[in-house]
Amino acid sequence: MVQAMDQAEQTAKQLDEIHKLASRHITSKIDQIFESYRRDHGLTEDEAKRVLANVKDLSDIRELKLALQNTTDSEEIRQLLILLDSAPYASRIEKYEALQREVDNLPARLYKAENEASRAFYDEFIPDAYYHSIFDLQQQSGVAFAFNRIDPEEIRAIQQTPWLGANYSERIWGNTQTLANELQKQLAVSLLTGRSAHETAEVINAQFGKGSYNSRRLVRTEASHFHAEMEALAYEEAEVERYRLVAVLDLRTSSVCREHDGEVYLVSERVEGKNYPPLHPWCRTVTIALDDDEWLAKATRSARDPVTGKTIQVPANMTYKDWYEKYVKPKYKADNLDIWKIERANDQYEKYKSILGDNAPKSLEDYIDLKYNDKEGYEQLQDRARWIKAKFPSEKSFNGHFEKHGHEFGNISKSDYLKLGQELLSNPIQDNILGYDTDSRRVRYDVKNNIYVLGNNGKATITTMMKPDEGRAYYDREVAKDLGS
User: Fold this and answer.
1) pLDDT in the model for residue 305
2) At a CB cut-off of 8 Å and minimum separation 6, what does 111 contact?
3) DSSP conformational letter for 50
4) Are 83 and 171 in contact (CB under 8 A)?
5) Any idea where the Phage head morphogenesis domain is (predicted)?
6) 251 and 186, same structural domain?
């Protein structure tokens, strides 16, 4: 199953590239429509969404303006209608309508590309899963029993058979249609609220990110479904009567799969989603034939060491609950840590790793030790994660400070300027990093590189970053002003 999911992941990466290409194509046209800075006038996002609820065709600017006219009168709406009707804005509106029409046609293009990539994967994956299941059963039983081969027509029929109400092609179409609808809505929201081109591009990229996530979830869950179906077909060929559910022994396993791990059912009574995998999206649970209890007592299964992360071997009849009691609970330095606390800590740890990378605790054990036994260290971790995501309060502010101070840092890009500010504000005070915090201000000063950065403590935003001409004297003066010393 691990190899099967690795294959599914490779296909998911192909689908991710398809979404990235589409995203780059759409965002490349945004600068022609939306302005560099957020407009001074415009609706709020909630107001914009209420207006759009009455618009059927988001690519038709006339329908959009009619919905605005039918909305409660306000100065903002009057100014917006004047802008949309103005001659200088005509070219932008024309490009906006063209882009909306292009997005309207996006599902067909994405569907074709995703469907072709998925079908090519499943055409190889399905027979491979079947023959591997047959081989595993022959190895387990020690009998090279005869079996039927699976032909291309059967493979295609398996792909087209609906499960839980749809087949994979229909699900791909549903995902692409949902993505296009949300993209159209966000483009319209940008037009009505006055989002800048940069802000709009960020929103569009985020929507494509969601689309890519949905595609990855689909291909992995469909692969799990086809793998399970081929195991069931192999059981029929070998006349296996019972199967045992086998969940993955690690901390990512869902509560549903944990509860089912080790349960035994009749092949004739299997029901996908209830007592047969996949039990849920992203499901990694598999089955093994259980016609020989003696074999199970002698066999082993793979498990994840919760501290080292390495794969270990445990008895095949060990259940998830047994594994947890033996390998997880005794490993941590916090007393009486319930299972739900370790699960929650694992989720939190994964988030910190995604935010902080190498600056996160090295293992889940280290994270739990920090959280429950080192209050000051844990607060520093939370603080670092908060500031490493900091941004300027607006695109206008970001552009203004970069234009004023960016040249002080040599040939630095806007993104690197932002990243440098985030990293410095997230640093704890140490030998070469001076600083202090008040209720409203967070200051860090890199002595070695003469970099001064100021943040808003209440909002966790970057106020400015510069290389002051006065160097350390500038920082000392700010300390005296803020702290009175």
Assistant:
1) 84
2) 172, 173, 176
3) H
4) no
5) 182-288
6) no
Same domain? 91 vs 222: yes
pLDDT of the residue at 423: 93
pLDDT in tens, 274-318: 999 999 988 999 999 986 677 778 888 999 887 777 899 999 989
- In whole angstroms, give the CA distance from residue 366 to residue 396: 41
- Count of domains in the chain? 4
Residues of the chain with pLDDT under 70: 1-2, 4, 37-41, 291-292, 332-339, 485
Burial class (CB in 10 A: 0-12, 13-18, 19+), 196: buried
Determine whether 432 is exposed, middle or buried from the number of CB atoms within 10 Å of its CB (0-12, 13-18, 19+): exposed
Its pTM stands at: 0.71
Half-sphere exposure of 399 (CA within 13 A, CB side): 11
Domain containing residue 416:
395-483
CA atoms of 39 and 191, how far apart (whole Å): 10
Confidence at residue 333, expressed as pLDDT on a 0 to 100 scale: 57
CA nearest to 248, candidates 283, 300, 204, 213 = 283
For residue 184, what are the CA distances in angstroms to 171, 181, 187, 203, 307? 20, 5, 5, 11, 46
Query: Which among 234, 249, 270 has a CA at the least distance from the CA of 317?
Result: 249
Q: Are residues 176 and 58 in the same domain?
A: yes
Last residue of a domain, one of 281, 299, 327: 327
Of 425, 485, 412, 482, nearest in space to 452 by CA = 425
Q: What share of the chain is helix, strand, coil (3-state, %, to 5)?
A: 60, 10, 30
Claim to verify: residue 129 and residue 165 sit in the same structural domain: yes
Give the pLDDT confidence score for residue 38 in this predicted structure: 65
